[in-house]
Amino acid sequence: MNPLSADIQIPFPSDHEAEIAYGSLSVDKEPKRGGVSKTMTFSHNVLNVHFQAQEARMLRVSINSFFEHLKLVVETMERFGPPR
User: Fold this and answer.
1) Where are the transmembrane segments (predicted)?
2) How far is residue 56's CA from residue 1's CA, in Å, rounded to a whole number?
3) Cα distance between residue 56 and residue 77, in whole Å
4) Pairing relation of β-strands 46-53 and 36-43?
5) Is the pTM higher than 0.90?
6) Contact 53, 36 (CB under 8 A)
7) Burial of 32 (C-beta count, 10 Å sphere; 0-12/13-18/19+)
8) pLDDT tens, position by position, for the chain (84 residues)?
9) How far apart are CA 59 and CA 37, in angstroms?
């Protein structure tokens, strides 16, 4: 079976906010037993995420989990104001 993949680009208002999101989200590694790999980079104000999995269900679960974490990071940045 060929691996499934998804690429997501998330723009932020500034380069610094993309870097903060990258730093916060890159510590959450995918469990090895899940069969999903996640690669993140950022360029300027865009966070780029690449997911790869053998099963569609595991890819969906991983992406959903990522967006839950992303939402928390964005809400935290909004709550504490713009980065300095």
Assistant:
1) none
2) 11
3) 31
4) antiparallel
5) no
6) yes
7) exposed
8) 678 999 999 999 999 999 999 999 988 676 667 789 999 999 999 999 999 999 999 999 999 999 999 999 999 999 987 666
9) 9
- Residue 9 CB neighbour total at 10 angstroms: 10
Inter-residue contact 54 to 1 (CB < 8 Å): yes
User: Do the Cβ atoms of 39 and 65 come closer than 8 Å?
Assistant: no
Task: Report the distance separating Cα 55 and Cα 52, nearest Å.
Answer: 9
Range of the domain at 71: 4-80
Contacts of 34 (CB under 8 A, 6+ apart): 53, 58, 61, 62
Ramachandran sector of residue 2 (left: φ over 0; alpha: ψ -120 to 50; beta: rest): beta
Residues in a beta bridge with 9: 48
Phi-psi region of 70 (alpha: psi -120 to 50; beta: other; left: phi over 0): alpha
Look up the CATH number of the domain holding residue 59: 3.30.310.50
